[in-house]
Design brief:
Layout: H1 5-14, H2 16-23, E1 37-38, E2 46-47, E3 52-53, H3 55-68, E4 72-78, E5 83-88, H4 89-105, E6 113-117, H5 122-134, E7 137-140, H6 147-157, E8 161-165, E9 167-170, E10 173-176, H7 177-187, E11 194-198, E12 212-214, H8 215-225, E13 234-235, E14 239-245, E15 253-258, H9 260-273, E16 281-284, H10 291-303, E17 307-311, H11 323-331, E18 333-338, H12 340-349, E19 366-369, H13 376-386, E20 390-392, E21 404-405, E22 422-423, E23 429-432, E24 445-450, H14 465-473, E25 479-488, E26 494-499, E27 503-506, E28 509-512, H15 513-521, E29 526-536, E30 540-549, H16 557-571, E31 580-583, H17 597-604, H18 619-628
Parallel strand pairs: 4-17, 6-7, 6-8, 8-11, 11-12, 16-17, 16-18, 18-19, 19-20, 30-31
Antiparallel strand pairs: 1-2, 3-13, 4-5, 9-10, 14-15, 21-22, 23-24, 24-25, 25-26, 27-28, 29-30
Helix pairs in contact: 1-2, 3-4, 3-5, 3-10, 4-5, 4-8, 6-7, 9-10, 12-13, 17-18
Bound molecules: coenzyme A (COA) and adenosine monophosphate.
Pfam family, one: AMP-binding_C
Domain Acetyl-coenzyme A synthetase N-terminal: 5-59
Keywords: Metal-binding
Length: 635
């Protein structure tokens, strides 16, 4: 099929409002928007400003009403607990109404914030949809974050209720969530009124009288009473959720998502980008704690009337590198979406892809990769073993849906390995030099998106318009700064090469080295430090911390290194994968005192490096090289 991409993109560019008002027809509105865009509202404008709708209604109720009630909406597949369960759209509706009734009973009102700190269990999805149903604003916090990170989020959004579980189940280890939640509430200045706790059979949590409520008991009670909870009619611009993501400081940014524009963009992407049809099985192998999970485990597939898979397991080790193939065969997955790191892990355990032979993957139409750069080697390996199109696409928490990719739904364009292909409708992407001037084709620069951002993208940060302006819009007036660097070639293909800030990508998880430095520096024996991302064969990057100790510290440096590793795990969480801390005498700096992180990274990765002309003392780079010897092998 010839691709209709060029025509579609040109159509959007010629009439953006016409394009999005057409796309809005895929959504059921309680009040159809008369206006598509209002450039005077919000930080850079707002989409569908006078429309009224409800995201839960569009994800669940309307499908039941339209005859999809008996179709599977959600398949829960959990190799770590040995459980599999399927919920029809009708069953999801019942469960969601149950949670919504419990929240209403706890006094949760439209606009109140609810934190969801849960593992990959169906109740987490029901909780998200229940919030959407009553107009509460959810903020899902990834389970791999520590108490301190959870506390920051409780304080920032002033959560009225926290929904959590007794534990998460990681391969070989039960992660007790409740003590982390209790510690977070202890640390937080703002105290949530109630916690709804899902007791899992793997570990029972102690409950605090007066504050904690048993999730299952509460839901069963309201369902027995037969409570019906209607969907609240919400303004399209009212918030659906806040998702915190790493910024350049220890303070995470609360990315805000609205109801109307978000649905319009996701519904468009499901059909025209992912080529996923209603009734088909769509599997995003991610976690609901990340934006991929929000958009393509929960909201996108359900808006589309697809069946979504909620997988509580890993690509390897649960039980082996054939786990993904089993899920594809067993549930008839048509479209798979995951991060390249998952395929690097599978390939490491099964280099020839031999386990695939044991499964029937004929249902699979395509594999989509995002979350980090898809290195051509991994991408080509996936193509060879799966024999379906493997599509790299680029986006971020802030955008909420793909900014660039090869649109399967519109017809694929020729592939260039290493490129996520072309900008999608809604995104006019430019590469700018540091002064904000467009660079020539092929030249590296800052990747920026011309304002206004399309529907689905963040309208602002939660309660922090000024931070949004200064972090994302101020540097290049008229553009949104993505903080990614790259280039566009002569054919209009985009290449994403690196971040322009301190963010690193560890196993597809976005983490701030600045935040890790804050933790390292808080150790009483550390005078100064630098954390950099170094290459890792499976995770893409992992952090490495270089520590300069206070003069006069006589304790064993290996002991301090272990303490710093434990401190980062304790303050940020295991997800940071911070396992390498090295004491050094000095850090390499420019004469103006800037730490030469880029050069340190090249040394660690075994890449060629040049002595920076501005270096203060060249001998320090040799010290770094010898400190790394025996501690880290370049990939
Ligand atoms: N709750 C508690 N702890 C968690 C957790 C959760 N929900 N998720 C991860 N962790 C812990 C892990 O147990 C691990 O702890 P450890 O240091 O004690 O081993 C640590 O956080 C790092 O986890 P992870 O990044 O998952 O690394 P891993 O070594 O366990 O697995 C991969 C590596 C590549 C298999 C894994 O990252 C993966 O499956 N990635 C798939 C892609 C993906 O999910 N991307 C997200 C964005 S699309
Ligand atoms: P997150 O907000 O966690 O989704 O992370 C977004 C960041 O991940 C982007 O800004 C990029 O730096 C990186 N990223 C995501 N997808 C890709 C991709 N396909 N290619 C290169 N980098 C990517």
């Amino acid at each position: 099929m010839a691709s209709s991409y060029a025509k579609t993109y040109a159509g959007w560019k010629a009439d953006p409002e016409g394009f999005w008002s057409g796309a809005a027809a895929a959504i059921d509105w309680f009040k159809t928007p008369a206006k598509t865009f209002d450039g005077e509202r919000g930080v850079y404008g707002r989409w569908f400003p006078d429309g009224e709708t409800n995201t839960c209604f569009n994800c669940v109720d309307r499908h039941v009403a339209a005859g999809r009630g008996d179709q599977a909406a959600l398949i829960y597949d959990s190799p770590v607990t040995g459980q599999k369960r399927s919920y029809t759209y009708r069953e999801v509706l019942t469960q969601v109404e149950g949670v919504a009734a419990v929240l209403l009973g706890l006094g949760v009102d439209r606009g109140d914030r609810v934190i969801i700190y849960m593992p990959m269990v169906p109740e987490a999805v029901f909780a998200m949809l229940a919030c959407a149903r009553i107009g509460a604003v959810h903020s899902v916090v990834f389970g791999g974050f520590a108490a301190n990170e959870l506390a920051t989020r409780i304080d920032d959004c002033r959560a009225k209720v926290v929904i959590s579980a007794s534990c998460g189940v990681e391969p070989g280890r039960i992660v007790a969530y409740k003590p982390l939640l209790d510690a977070a509430i202890e640390l937080a200045a703002h105290k949530p009124e109630h916690c709804l706790i899902l007791q899992r059979p793997e570990l029972s949590a102690a409950m605090s009288a007066g504050r904690d409520i048993d999730f299952a008991d509460a839901v069963t009670e309201v369902l027995t009473e037969g409570t019906v909870v209607p969907c609240v009619s919400l303004g399209a611009t009212e918030p659906l959720y806040i998702l915190y993501t790493s910024g350049t400081t220890g303070q995470p940014k609360g990315v805000l998502r609205d109801n109307g524009g978000h649905m319009v963009a996701l519904a468009w992407s499901m059909q025209h980008f992912y080529g996923a049809r209603p009734g088909e099985v769509f599997w995003a192998a991610s976690d609901i704690g990340w934006v991929v999970g929000h958009s393509y485990i929960v909201y996108g597939p359900l808006l589309n009337g697809s069946t979504t898979v909620l997988y509580e397991g890993k690509p390897v080790g649960t039980p082996d590198a054939g786990a993904y193939w089993r899920v594809i065969e067993e549930h008839g997955v048509r479209v798979l979406f995951t991060a390249p790191t998952a395929f690097r892990a599978i390939r490491k355990d099964d280099p020839s892809g031999s386990l695939i032979a044991g499964y029937d993957l004929s249902s699979l139409r395509a594999l989509f990769l995002a979350g980090e750069r898809a290195d051509p080697d991994t991408l080509q390996w996936a193509e060879q073993v799966l024999l379906v199109p493997v599509i790299d696409h680029w986006w971020q928490t802030e955008s909420g849906w793909p900014m660039a990719g090869n649109p399967l739904g519109l017809g694929l364009l020729p592939v260039k390995h290493g490129s996520p292909t072309v900008p999608l409708p809604g995104y006019e992407i430019h590469v700018l030099d540091d002064a904000g001037h467009a660079v020539a084709a092929g030249a590296l620069g800052n990747i920026a998106v011309k304002l206004p951002l399309p529907p689905g993208c963040l309208p602002s940060f939660w309660n922090a318009d000024e931070r949004f302006r200064s972090a994302c819009l101020a540097e290049f007036p008229g553009y949104y700064k993505t903080s990614d660097a790259g280039f566009i070639d002569e054919d209009g293909y985009l290449f994403i090469m690196s971040r322009t800030d301190d963010i690193i990508n560890v196993a597809g998880h976005r983490l701030s080295t600045g935040a890790m430095e804050e933790v390292c520096a808080s150790h009483p024996d550390v005078a100064e430090c630098a954390v950099i991302g170094i290459a890792d064969a499976v995770k893409g990057q992992v952090p490495a911390g270089f520590l300069v100790l206070n003069s006069g510290v006589s304790r064993e440096s290996s002991m301090i290194e272990r303490e710093v590793v434990a401190l980062v795990r304790d303050r940020i969480g295991p997800v940071a994968a911070f396992k390498l801390a090295i004491c050094v005498k000095r850090l390499p700096k420019t004469r103006s005192g800037k730490i030469l992180r880029g050069t340190m990274q090249k040394i660690a990765d075994g890449q060629e490096w040049k002595m920076p002309a501005t270096i203060d003392d060249p001998a320090i780079l040799e010290e770094i090289e010898s400190a790394l010897a025996g501690r880290h092998l370049p990939v």
